């Protein structure tokens, strides 16, 4: 089918995106969540760049004799996005280190249990 | 352990200067081929990170003390914003590079080179800072 | 790449997870080269496969090595993910096929940049000229974000070396 062969890449990328998304919302370990976020981001970028490709074009660097270029606009946006993504990941990892110091664990359900205990103790000491 | 592996020490001593040179090449040839400020900053930082991995954080701190990395971070951003302000003072809009010189093409070229340098400095400073903080804390924990 | 992502979901050894995410980024960089995005491939390889992996390894060294054993498959997240995926695939049915030169996205602003960047700005690398000159404000914001991230990491874990020895945290 025409549509199938034309759109196949997009579907594969969407499947990759969904795997990253699943990692973010279902894993309990904080580091795996951050890795899932990274996977999600990278697949979104691949999606975006694949939209910018022009058949028969080359890299968008002006040179003699080349007529068709790929669209440079997605490249610029994704370049900024990659760098901002690494900045966010660095901050998230620093937060994880602090959480490990404060709670002693990086599994999400254990952290929630500890927080509920802390809140209960605070309420007891206040009342 | 890592400091005693002589193959790693020798190879990294050979590799680190070419890595820095490559970073400078990428920085200033960003106009003609792929590259530019971000890539150059990251590659430059990775040379320092390689040094810190093999020779230890204390040695790396002697090469890039805390005030130097903070200076790199801040000065890159100031350079970028400063170019914009200079363009404004010379009569154009903020960040309008054509005002920087009599020929608009030369002005654009000068402006782009300056801000890419600013970007590269800040990115390199940021990556080195973040890595040295992580690694410094790791050594402190190992000593406990 | 799909195989790498699937292994990432199922593995418990965190060291392997981090290494696989580096491989995932590297594969994405190769894909970018195939799709003519050389600047992006450069940045993704340097940043994703390099810096991200190093920072995650650093965090691993400061925290645990293994993931806790999980119950097998969560039904609610799986349902959310399947519904979102189906909606997205339904959305792509309207898109022009891959690589089509007559797609609307290539015509207005992108075309303008390709044609005019040589005369108006100068350098042959269109991506650099767009990034630095046409969209200079965005790049300024991006540098500010990196600066803030470094400052944030310094504030979060920069100073605690001394405090850990005294025992308490404020």
How would you describe what is shown here?
The complex is a heterotrimer of chains A (127), B (144) and C (170). With 127 residues, chain A is mainly α. Chain A contains four helices and no strands. With 144 residues, chain B is mostly helical. Chain B is built from five helices and no strands. Chain B has helices at 6-28, 37-55, 57-63, 66-89, 104-143. In chain B, helix 1 (6-28) runs antiparallel to helix 2, helix 2 crosses helix 3 (57-63) and helix 3 runs antiparallel to helix 5. Chain C has helices at 2-10, 14-34, 38-62, 75-92, 109-120, 126-134, 136-157, 160-166. Chains B and C meet through helix 2, helix 4 and helix 5 of B and helix 3, helix 6, helix 7 and helix 8 of C.
Question: What descriptors fit this protein?
Answer:
heterotrimer; A: about 130 residues; mainly alpha; Helix Hairpins; 4 helices; B: about 140 residues; 5 helices; about 0% strand; elongated
The SSE string of chain C, one letter per element, is: HHHHHHHH
Of all protein chain pairs, which has the greatest interface, and how many residues does each chain bring to it?
A-C, 84 and 88 residues
* Beta-strand content estimate of chain C: under 5%
Which whole number gives the mean pLDDT of chain B? 78
Q: How many distinct domains of chain B? A: 1
Give the terminus-to-terminus CA distance of chain B: 18 Å
Overview in brief:
Chain A has 127 residues and is mostly helical. Chain A has helices spanning 2-26, 30-51, 72-103, 108-126.
Strands, helices and their partners?
The complex is a heterotrimer of chains A (127), B (144) and C (170).
Chain A: H1 2-26, H2 30-51, H3 72-103, H4 108-126
Helix pairs in contact in A: 1-2, 2-3
Chain B: H1 6-28, H2 37-55, H3 57-63, H4 66-89, H5 104-143
Helix pairs in contact in B: 1-2, 2-3, 2-5, 3-5, 4-5
Chain C: H1 2-10, H2 14-34, H3 38-62, H4 75-92, H5 109-120, H6 126-134, H7 136-157, H8 160-166
Helix pairs in contact in C: 1-2, 2-3, 6-7
């Amino acid at each position: 089918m025409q549509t199938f062969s034309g759109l196949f890449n997009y579907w594969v990328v969407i499947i990759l995106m969904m795997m990253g998304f699943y990692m973010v919302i279902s894993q309990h370990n904080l580091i795996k969540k951050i890795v899932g976020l990274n996977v999600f981001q990278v697949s979104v970028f691949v999606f975006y760049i694949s939209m910018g490709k022009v058949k028969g074009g080359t890299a968008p660097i002006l040179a003699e004799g080349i007529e068709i270029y790929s669209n440079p606009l997605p490249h610029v946006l994704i370049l900024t996005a990659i760098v901002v993504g690494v900045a966010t990941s660095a901050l998230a990892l620093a937060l994880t280190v602090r959480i490990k110091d404060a709670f002693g664990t990086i599994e999400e359900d254990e952290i929630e249990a500890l927080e509920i205990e802390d809140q209960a103790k605070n309420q007891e000491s206040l009342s | 352990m890592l400091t005693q592996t002589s193959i790693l020490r020798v190879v990294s001593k050979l590799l680190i200067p070419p890595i820095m040179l490559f970073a400078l090449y990428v920085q200033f040839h960003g106009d003609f081929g792929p590259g530019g400020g971000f890539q150059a900053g990251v590659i430059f930082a990775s040379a320092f990170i390689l040094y810190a991995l093999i020779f230890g954080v204390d040695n790396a701190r002697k090469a890039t003390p805390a005030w130097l990395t903070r200076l790199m971070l801040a000065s890159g951003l100031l350079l970028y914003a400063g170019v914009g302000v200079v363009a404004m003072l010379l009569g154009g809009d903020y960040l309008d590079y054509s005002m920087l010189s009599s020929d608009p093409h030369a002005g654009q070229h000068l402006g782009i080179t300056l801000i890419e340098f600013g970007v590269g400095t800040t990115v390199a400073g940021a990556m080195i800072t973040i890595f040295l903080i992580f690694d410094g804390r790791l050594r402190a924990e190992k000593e406990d | 790449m799909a195989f790498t992502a699937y292994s990432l979901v199922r593995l418990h050894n965190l060291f392997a997870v981090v290494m696989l995410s580096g491989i995932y980024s590297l594969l994405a960089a190769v894909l970018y080269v195939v799709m003519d995005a050389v600047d992006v491939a450069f940045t993704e390889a340097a940043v994703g496969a390099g810096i991200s992996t190093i920072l995650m390894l650093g965090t691993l060294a400061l925290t645990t090595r293994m993931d806790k054993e999980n119950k097998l498959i969560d039904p609610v997240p799986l349902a959310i993910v399947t519904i979102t995926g189906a909606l997205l695939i339904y959305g792509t049915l309207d898109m022009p096929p891959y690589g089509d030169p007559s797609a609307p996205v290539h015509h207005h602003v992108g075309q303008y940049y390709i044609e005019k960047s040589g005369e108006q700005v100068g350098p042959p690398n269109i991506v650099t000229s767009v990034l630095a000159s046409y969209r200079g404000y965005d790049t300024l914001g991006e540098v500010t974000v990196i600066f803030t991230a470094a400052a944030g990491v310094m504030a979060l874990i920069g100073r605690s070396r001394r405090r850990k020895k005294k025992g308490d945290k404020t």
